[in-house]
Each structure stands twice: as C-alpha cells, then as structure tokens.
Description:
Layout: H1 2-14, H2 16-29, H3 39-59, H4 67-88, H5 96-101, H6 107-134, H7 148-172, H8 176-189, H9 205-208, H10 212-226, H11 232-256, H12 260-263
Helix pairs in contact: 2-6, 3-4, 3-6, 4-6, 4-7, 4-8, 4-10, 6-7, 7-10, 7-11
Amino acid sequence: MIQNLKKQIHQIWRYRELLTQLFWTFVKLRHVGSVLGFFWTLLNPFLYIVTYWLVFSVFINMGLSNYPLFLIPGFLAWNFFATSLNNSSEAIINSKDLISKIAFPKEILVIINIAVPLFDFVIAITLYLIVINLIPGAYSFSPLILLLPLIVFLQLVVTFGLSLIIACLSVYFRDIPQLVQVGTILLFFLTPVFYPISFIPGKWHYIFQLNPMAILITFYHDIFYYNQLPDMKLFLAVLAAGLIFVTVSLLIFNKYKKVFAEIS
C-alpha cells in the first residue's frame, strides 16, 4: 500500500510540467474576452476587502472592535475552501475528452482545481496585509503572522483530501456537485467566519470541532485578530488527521481512477 502511494506521488511529480501548463491555462481561461484580463485577479479581492472594510467599519456594528480585521481573513480562507470543493466536484466529469485522449495522473485535475483558488487566496491575503498596514491603527505587525504559511498548508491538506473524495464520487454520482454547492452553503453558517466561536454555547463546541474549517478559521482569527498563539496541540492533531485522510483519499482515488474515462 505504501509502495503504491509512493509510486502515485512520484507519477504526479513526473508530470509537474503538465500541471504547471494546465494551471496557467485555467488561470487565463477565466478572463478570456475580458478587457482587463489578468488584472481582475488583483482587482476582485481588492474590491472585496475595501468594500467589507467600509461596510463593517462605517455602516454596520457587529459588536466587535475592528470587526473587518476579524471577518476578512476568515472569509477569504473560507472562499478558498468552498471554491476548491465546488471546482473539484466537476474536475473529472468536465475533463472526459482530456482523460480519454491523454495518459496522465488524474490527480492533477484535482490539484489544478485547488491550485487556482489557492493562487487567488494568496493574492487576496497579500493585498489584505498591504491594505491593513496602510490604514492607520488598523493593524500592528506581529511575529505571529509568520505562522500564516503553516495554517495555509494545514488548510491545503484538509482541502486536498476532501477534494479527492468528492471528485471521485462525482464520477459515479452526478448529484454530488449540486450537493457540494448546497453543503458548502450550509457549512458556512456552522463555521465561525462572521462570528467568534465564543458566541456559541459551550455545550455545542464539540459539534463545531468536528468541522475542520471551524478550527482553521479560529487559527486565522488567532493570528490576525486576537494576536495570540493558536492551540498548537489542536494544530498538530488536525495536521495528523489531515495527512492520514489525504493518504486514504489518494489510495481510494488511485483504486477507481482507471475507469474514469469509461464512466465520466
């Protein structure tokens, strides 16, 4: 089993040039026919950040000081997660022609559909850091921000594992993309993006901790808003569980991918 997994990872690495080409193709296709083109990749997150900052700083009081500082990082992280799952749910079924004509590791299609939202997220969070440092008194730099890549990596692990399973199931059950869309909307309200976890009665906390994104969003809040070290024991526990889940997901995906071209 471990040998098969190593072989699977090695195959993906061998096709890294194809992965890179497909990634930039997917990025460019989003803006085909657009006047501003790639500039929208920068403009969209910038407009979201400025809009949320103005709305929740000037017009709406949520009962938290500097509320946009609380809201925006979690919202951007959630958008990366939800977009990745929704894209991955159609990664295989929308690529039947490519799968049937070219021999390559099918996992690449899932990776691409996560890599593009990750690219958007990195740009958005970078713009966010620039904006909050330009606004006087909005944010004071803390060394805790150096933990951000670790939290993003943890989210990437969780997202990749779920995306592999969803992409595989979608080939056999065509209702999966619609279920994922509905599911991510429902899960959004069970994830502390717009509200802190402290607003939830203690007796319900265990339910929220079953949701890995609830934990991850809390980590973002810790370093951006509360300026405190995240619970590292919980971080390591989620990381261990995520890596095990990714391993199992890869093995399951590898088992069924041989018939994707026939079924999709």
